[in-house]
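Structure Section — protein described below
Tokens — whole-number codes for backbone shape
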Amino acid sequence: MLQLEDINRSFAGRQVLHEVSFQAQRGKLTGFVGGNGAGKTTTMRIILGVLAADSGRITLDGAPVTAEARTRFGYMPAERGLYPKMRIAEQLTYLGRLHGYSKAEAASRVDQLLQRLGLTERRNDALEALSTGNQQRVQIAAALVHNPDVLVLDEPFSGLDPLAVDEVLGVLTEAAAGGAIVLFSSHQLDVVERLCDDLVIIGRGRILAAGDREDLRRRHGTLRYELTTGADAGWVRDVPGTAVDEFSSHRVVFRADESTAQQILARAVDNGPVESFTPLLPNLSDIFREFTADQNADESAETPQEVHA
């Protein structure tokens, strides 16, 4: 398990990470999400040792992360980091050799990755000759070439079409199934929600939520309900404490606390047959928006208001 505890970091006197704490477990895909400037990349660079934290600590399986341990880390940056004019297979083999593989071992590993990522036919092409999506696949192969214990990916699905997303997911899932820790950041919340096991949400350098994806959906965000009846359901719009998101004559989707929702159900049963009454768990976008709104409200409350005479 990779664990971060109370990580702080400042740049030029401005604090950008505030006691960041979370964990990423072996065998799972952990999604790290937040808006632009939230602190994702800074946190990842501290994990990798590219940046130093001002305070706090990082452990791997309970032991401090050392330079030697980081040789078993794989990293894919958001920006391009490979040689554009070098042939794909050649430079991936070169990277494998740098990690201690023999030439034959590195070549075999590269062949496996190129096949899994649908790049075998492009193995002798220069990186710059590839499309944006295929360049992204090569970046991912570079991070995986030495079969790392910890895989850190910054926006790995950017520029990928749905088929490529599935191919990359297959490779990452295999890495996790082999015992690797897989941590990836993304601003594509719908993709993260579909792919990851655990979630970490960061906003303005603070961890807003972390844990199992489904548990977060149950514990956070505004719960919605879907009511389908054999009678007209228009009256739901007039119930105090209720916000209606979708409505037709016999079906309504609304937001309310649990007590109000149960009152609505009881009234619906009295009015006629109830075909279905289903809680709808919030999606990741809903949760993220709610956390962001709460954070903005808290910061506004802490900011002294200007008084005009």
In short: The first helix runs from residue 40 to 48. The CA atoms of residues 276 and 288 lie 28 Å apart. The first strand starts at residue 2 and ends at 11. The mean pLDDT is 90.
